Sequence to fold (96 residues):
Amino acid sequence: MDHDLEFNGARAERSTAAMLSAPPTKHAAVDVSGGDVAFTAPYPRVLFIGGAGNIVVTDMDGDDATYTVPAGYELAGFFKGVKQTGTTGTNIVARW
Fold:
């Protein structure tokens, strides 16, 4: 299969590129009030943040990162989870 996209030195197959550019087809609320939320494959590629605040996510390497986002923000990437501690943003929706 052709490698027709390159980003930060990483190459993507056409099927991966099509998946990333296509609108998400699955959505699920993310409730961290009871603890950390872990995702399984396939991992969400966007987190919609309805209420402004900090979002602590676990990336694909297992590292945690904190993002400060405004209300209505779409945080793009592939995420293994959202941490309860440090997350103050609300109305989080995972999108695949």
